[in-house]
Amino acid sequence: MYQRGSVQRRIGGRVRGAVAVAVAAGLAVTLAACGSDSGGGSSAAASPAAASASSGPDLSGVTLRVATYPAAIGGDEALLKAAGLLDTPYKVRFQTYPDGGAQTGAVNQGSADLARGSGVANVLIAAGGTKPNFVSVATLRLPTSLQWTVAKKGITSIADLRGKKVAYTKNTTTQYFLLKQLASAGLTFKDIQPVPLTPADGLSALLGGSVDALAGFGKTVQVAVAKGNPILADGGPILKGSLGGLVGAYNAYTSDLDDPAKSAAIADYIGRIEASFAWTRAHPAEWDKITATNTNQPLESVTANFKASENSANSAVGPVDPKALTDQQAIADTFQAAGLLPGKVNVAGSYNTKLNPAIAAAIASYKAKFPANFAVTTVK
Hints:
The protein has 380 residues and is α/β, with parallel strands linked by helices. It contains 14 helices and 14 strands.
């Protein structure tokens, strides 16, 4: 059973800009494009004539339930708000979950419509017997300095973890890079005492002494290191796939793909996420301040981390990409080799390309709306 998320807020509003986009099989999707290249939420209202001329489905009655991380970890809501792209022609209800596995599981159970999870969470969900529908591939910025395995003082290497209690978050990237780190030291999961915990509980367990090490990411490992716990290994290089960053995907609730209005909203939402990523690169100082505040990290660290990670591989979302499937199949094979999966997982069978044309069209429309933002690929 997945941990229930908390509904943070319900948003929505009038369409501030509309662009009609042709979708697969003749389906037309109405996209709302708000904001300006300068960001900050300013926008122009859509003209009544343009709205009435649209032949796409009516999105005003759609509520898109999006499972996401809380702002302290890095969720969609903070990203869209920063870019000024929250004023959608459909309602969005954000539901927060502590990790990607729980988010993807919520979609499979029907308690959410859309969720973005890492490649690791996705392949493990696919192995669980419930077929997900991954409709979009995400390349997520990879802060290599924040994907660490840390330990108690006195433990100096991964090899020292033999027989030790090691906390990690099940069905997430931490479990994957821990497996690979153990293998590099000639160890397997059977050689340690794995303790599955949420990131926050894992940190508390390490600081309280009930576990010997923690495979974690972001703020949790920063706090552990600040308390004097040594870093044993960096998981970042392990997670960097063929697309240059951590591969993830958006999982959509199955029945939504047969609903023209829900499908249109999903495609538009993914287009907005891509436009928001572009906004962060075009406005790094603004985004770094927001991130530092939300995550309670030093601004200098956030700034350096964002620049390094985005210049390694731009964060992006888009249609299903065969390269991502290859990366995720390799992840699945790693878990199977470790005896952690019941059998062979066919990752490709978990992807659905039905929305590929709609997502591509949505992104193209936002690129046309915000050309200056999309032109920035290097963070200065």
